[in-house]
Every structure is written in C-alpha cells, then in structure tokens.
User: Which sequence fits this backbone?
C-alpha cells in the first residue's frame, strides 16, 4: 500500500492537523489492520514518506513501525527531510519509487498486489506495477478534476489554482494511475458515474464500489449511565448552557469543508441558536498565525463570523483534541440528542459520517458524494445543498425538534453501519475482487506470448546479452539458453543491451520467440525500460541529460567527411546516429577532440566498422548496466555480460563477467587476454552458454 503524503503513524493520528492528514490516512491505516486479520493475507506494508523535522513528532522518522503482527508502516526517504505539503512532492516521487524497489529487495519477495492511494500514490504505484508486473489497485480518495471544477465555481482563477495546487500534474498522475490500474476502488456509485466519468481513462468495468469500514469497537453509542469524557471540560469553557443539544461538525480547517456556511446558517437562525449549541472541531492548533495559509484563512474567517453574529457562549471551538477524543465527541453529541453535520462542498465518502452513525448520532450532510450512499443504506438523516444557508439552518432545527424521528434515525444508523460498513465485509469483497484480477490475468496470458514475471526484486545475479549476433543468430542455441535460464527458479535475472531502439528490439525478440526480458538497455545505453509495459527508467533519463546539447552536436557534425545521418527512426532523444565510412572519416579521437573544442561533451561509440553513435557523456551500455545493477542492489561481479561488437566494450570491461562470442567484430580483439573477459569458441547463443559454463554462473560462480 502506498500513501506518500501526510503524517502517518499507527497511534494518535493527528487528523485535521493540516490538509494532508485527514480521512485518507485513517482509511489506509484501518484497511492495513483489517487486511492482516484475514487468514489469506500474510503481510501488509504501508509505504509512506520518512519525515525528520523538529516541527513534527519523531514518530514520523522511524523507518519501520509495526501496526499489528504482519502489518507495518515503512517510511522511505523522499526528497528533503522536512515535512512538505503534497503539492510540492511531485519532483521526488520517482525517488520514492526507487526506494520502494530497494525495500522490496530487502524483503526478498515481490508483492502480490500494489494498492495506491491518492494521485501521488497512484503515480508511484503505476511505476512499481509496470516495473514488477504486479496488478495495481487504486483508490483516488479525492479527484483533481472534480476539485478544479469546484474551485472554479467558487470564482478562483485557473492560474491561481494551478500555482497553488499543481492541478495539471495531479490530474495527469490520476490519468496514469487509471491507465495502469487493474482495479479502481470507489466508495460510492456516484463517485464512479459522476466523478471518474470525466477522466480520459474512464473504464467503469474495472471500477468497483467497496465502502470503507468502521471500527465498531471504538465507535459505539453512549451507554445509559453515561459519564462525561475529559473533552467535555474543554467544551463547557465556551458554552453558557452546556445542557443544550450539540450540533457537531468535525473536519480539518479546509475551505472545501465549508465550515463558514454552517456558522452562517447557525448565526442567522435565532430559533436554532436557542435550541442547540454548535461545536466545531477543526483540527488541532497551537497558534493560528503559525498555521499554513489555507487553514489560517479558514480559522480566521471562523472567528470573524462568530464575532459578527455574536455567538460567544453558543459555539465551542477547542484548540486541541486527540484521536482518542473523537469517539467521545460523537457519544457526547448523541447523549445530548444532537446532530452531526457535514456541510462539505464535496465529500468523496465521509468516514466521519459512519463514525457518527455508529455512535447513534443522526446526520445532516452534503448531497454530493458519499453521503448519498450512506444515508440511503442507513436511513439516519437528511441531505442538503451545502451552499443554501437558509435551508441548512431550517433542516438542522427540524431534525433537532422531532424527537421520534431523532430516535428512529439514531437506531437506524447503528443498525445500518453494522450491516453495510464493517471492515470484515470490506476485506471479504476486496479479496474477492482481487481474485478476479488474477483469474483475468491467467486467462489473458494463456493466449498471449510468453510472459515472465520480473525477477529483478529477488534475483541475485544477472545475465545481460547484446541482441544481434550474440543472443540471436542460431535458433537451437537460443532455445537452449532460454531453457537454462528458465530452470533457475527466478534467482537469475535476464536482460538485453542493444544498439537497437526499444521498438525494434521488442520486434526482433518476438520474431525469435525470446520470452520477455526483465529489462531492456536500448539505443546503445541511452534508454532503460522494464517489463511488458515498457516502463522507462526516468531516473536514468535525468542522470544522462547532463550537458547534452543535441542541436549543437548535429550542427558540429554536419560537414564532417565520411559521415552521414542515419534515418529519422533511428534517432532518439539521447542518441544521434550516423553511418560512417572508416576510409574517409576522421579517427574517433579526432571527432571527440573536435566536439570538445566546441564545448560539446559526448560519448563516441564506434561499432561494426560502419556505425557511429553520439550519446550524452554519462550514457553507454556499460554505464546503464552499472546504474541498473546499483538500483536493484545486484553486485556488479554477479553480472554476466555477453557481446560481439565495439558498442559492448564498456560493459565487458571492469568487474563484470565478460563473454565475447566467437563471431565477434575485429574491434573487440584488443580485449583478448584481459582478466574477466572470456572469449568463447561457440557462436551466438552457444558462445553465451559456454561463458555461463566457464564461470559456473548458474551455480557458485567461479572466476578463473
């Protein structure tokens, strides 16, 4: 499970502290705990960001925290150590994905399911799913396109929305998650039909409604002889008549939660003020001025409205509360025969509504999103237009005044939550849907070309082959090599390193019936891709763009004799390719010197006495191989490399176990007699097999 942002820990959740620490974190935490109680679930890891910041608890800096036996919070390094709001985490998500891969290697087992939460988690989940060939389950929680529409309706301009929320990036991440997800979990049918339907990747067949569960041991109605909890003392400081029914609102201080409309409705309805007290739990705070801009603005408006309507003595808004106080607040309001109100502009689901219902507290809630389904199942309240101030006040007064209706709603809520919203029923349906995913994958793979699940997370060694004239060329030798690798029970990873572009490499491997490699190093090492979904390694891409000036390089090479540009389809973002006539062209050293004098820094690759490739100074097959081995934590001396031409030279050198096939190009002759480079007598794949036998690579690995 991936929940990147917010403050995540297994106890004393700081819900409402800020916009990033809300119901989503509670949902992920309780789902993790519920899943591990099921006999079919062996392990649950909830991955989140490690935070080392004096402004927050040291709990968030612990690498691992046990939730329950078998369930853990795992905190990974992701960008700066300090606490950051989710909108500025985007540049660090690829790093988070890389750290997640290292965690998986430490565990030594590929997960069976990746479950991502929110847009940022969806971005990371999509990358991991593609890299590992593991099904992705995604829960959006709150959707960017919907939020943008709501903000525009409030009169906020596009450029302001983009600057504050990085909305385009968030929406694109959501599209990527939907594009890769085998299953999308929604809380309500309305979320599928009205919210996800505005996305380009809207596929309702892969979407399923599984409402969140509720912890009935924590959230339950007050007993007959109800003792007032400690939080009661904090409330009565604000209230002239604490014996009145309580209208309870509980949310973080976010403009979307629409707290200001609730205060207006209360302040403008005299009978409502006389009938009940208003209790607003808007997160915890120490100093309003020290809060972030959004929450500070909400709290400032709250105080202004209380003052405008002179609500002193009628409204309580305590500064602090703990997670343990929340069930007591619901019971306190229920004991007073009060009402829980959620006036949010949009509510994807509304866990607080379920908590209130389980506590016997009737609801008045927004007519948008999750409350539709909750009230439909529980019959314990009424829905309202969150922007209609007058009607909100009238509905609250009516709900508080009809005692028979209040009792019926209270009992219906308790019963409805038990029937429809338990974590046990949630997990049971969750696992049934996961079974369907695996059944569909099995059926698909029976009719598709051979697919090998990625071995990189568990492999302890790699076999890497050039394609042309090394891996392919002799069908019988190729089939024998494939058989030997497939008999290794997954501990030997397999990849190709080629001068071909990725599309061409996939095509020729398919023609020769080569099973899907775990990775492709293509375009002479300027690109790395993984698995059947051809997920590009964005970290490698960022690494090699250093000092790369392709337009200037092409201009500098334009009039050089004996050199002409290869076709457009052979040019790549980080590879400029030429045909070369050795008799007419300058020597490689002269080409390099010419470019350096123009402050153009490239790696010059000459191969087969016919091809010239110019790459970024950091790129090559060898550099890409070493980057990949380091990323997946595989020692370079446990990597066997087989090649036949000059563009393989760098990956053959060094501490790798090199194999040069018999049918090699003349430019590799200079490597003969080098340590750790074996010149085979067999051609093509037969030569690779001889190299494997020479090093005893599939067994104990011996270097002679």
Assistant:
């Amino acid at each position: 499970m991936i929940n990147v942002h917010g403050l995540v820990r297994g106890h004393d959740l700081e819900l409402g502290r800020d916009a990033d620490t809300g119901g989503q974190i509670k949902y992920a935490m309780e789902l993790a705990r519920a899943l591990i109680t099921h006999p079919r679930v062996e392990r649950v890891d909830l991955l989140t960001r490690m935070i080392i910041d004096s402004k927050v608890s040291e709990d968030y800096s612990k690498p691992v925290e046990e939730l329950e036996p078998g369930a853990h919070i795992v905190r990974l390094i992701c960008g700066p150590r300090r606490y950051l709001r989710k909108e500025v985490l985007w540049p660090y998500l690829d790093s988070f994905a890389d750290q997640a891969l290292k965690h998986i290697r430490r565990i030594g087992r590929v997960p069976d399911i990746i479950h991502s939460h929110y847009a940022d988690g969806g971005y990371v989940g999509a990358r991991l799913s593609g890299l590992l060939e593991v099904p992705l389950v995604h829960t959006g929680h709150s959707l960017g396109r919907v939020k943008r529409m709501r903000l525009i309706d409030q009169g906020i301009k596009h450029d302001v929305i983009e600057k504050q929320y990085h909305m385009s990036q968030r929406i694109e991440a959501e599209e990527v998650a939907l594009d890769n997800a085998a299953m999308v979990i929604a809380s309500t049918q309305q979320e599928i039909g009205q919210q996800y339907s505005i996305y380009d990747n809207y596929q309702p067949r892969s979407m399923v409604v599984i409402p969140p569960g509720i912890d009935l041991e924590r959230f339950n109605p007050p007993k007959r002889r109800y003792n007032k909890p400690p939080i009661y003392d904090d409330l009565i400081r604000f209230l002239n008549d604490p014996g009145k029914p309580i209208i309870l609102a509980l949310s973080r201080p976010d403009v979307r939660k629409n707290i200001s409309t609730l205060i207006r409705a209360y302040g403008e309805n005299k009978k409502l003020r006389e009938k009940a007290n208003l209790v607003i739990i808007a997160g915890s705070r120490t100093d309003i001025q020290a809060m972030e801009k959004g929450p500070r603005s909400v709290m400032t408006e709250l105080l202004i409205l209380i003052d405008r309507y002179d609500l002193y003595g009628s409204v309580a808004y305590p500064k602090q509360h703990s997670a343990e106080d929340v069930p007591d607040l619901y019971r306190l309001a229920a004991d007073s025969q009060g009402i829980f109100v959620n006036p949010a502009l949009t509510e994807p689901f509304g866990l607080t509504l379920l908590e209130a219902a389980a506590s016997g507290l009737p609801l008045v809630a927004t007519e948008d999103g999750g409350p539709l389904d909750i009230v439909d199942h529980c019959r314990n309240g009424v829905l309202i237009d969150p922007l209609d101030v007058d009607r909100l006040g009238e509905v609250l007064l009516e709900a508080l005044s009809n005692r028979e209706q209040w009792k019926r709603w209270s009992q219906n809520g308790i019963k409805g939550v038990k029937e429809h919203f338990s974590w046990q029923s949630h997990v049971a349906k969750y696992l049934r849907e996961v079974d369907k995913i695996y059944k569909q994958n099995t059926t698909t793979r029976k009719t598709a070309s051979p697919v090998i699940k990625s071995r990189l997370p568990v492999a302890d060694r790699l076999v890497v082959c050039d394609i042309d004239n090394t891996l392919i060329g002799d069908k019988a030798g190729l089939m024998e090599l494939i058989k030997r690798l497939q008999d290794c029970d997954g501990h030997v990873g397999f990849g190709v390193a080629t001068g071909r572009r990725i599309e061409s490499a996939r095509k020729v491997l398919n023609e020769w019936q080569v099973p899907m490699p775990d990775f492709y190093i293509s375009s002479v090492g300027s690109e790395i891709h993984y698995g059947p979904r051809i997920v590009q390694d964005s970290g490698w891409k960022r690494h090699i763009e250093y000092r790369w000036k392709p337009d200037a390089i092409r201009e500098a090479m334009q009039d050089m004799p004996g050199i002409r540009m290869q076709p457009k389809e052979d040019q790549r973002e980080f590879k400029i390719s030429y045909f070369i006539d050795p008799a007419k062209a300058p020597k490689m050293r002269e080409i390099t010197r010419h470019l350096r004098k123009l402050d153009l820094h490239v790696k010059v690759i000459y191969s087969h006495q016919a091809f010239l490739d110019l790459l970024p100074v950091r790129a090559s097959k060898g550099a890409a191989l070493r980057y990949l081995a380091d990323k997946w934590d595989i020692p370079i001396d446990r990597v066997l490399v087989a090649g036949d031409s000059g563009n393989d030279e760098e990956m053959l050198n060094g501490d790798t176990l090199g194999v040069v096939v018999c049918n090699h190009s003349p430019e590799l002759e200079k490597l003969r007699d080098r340590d750790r480079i074996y010149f085979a007598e067999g051609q093509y794949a037969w030569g690779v097999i001889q190299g494997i036998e020479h090093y005893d690579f599939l067994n104990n690995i011996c270097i002679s």
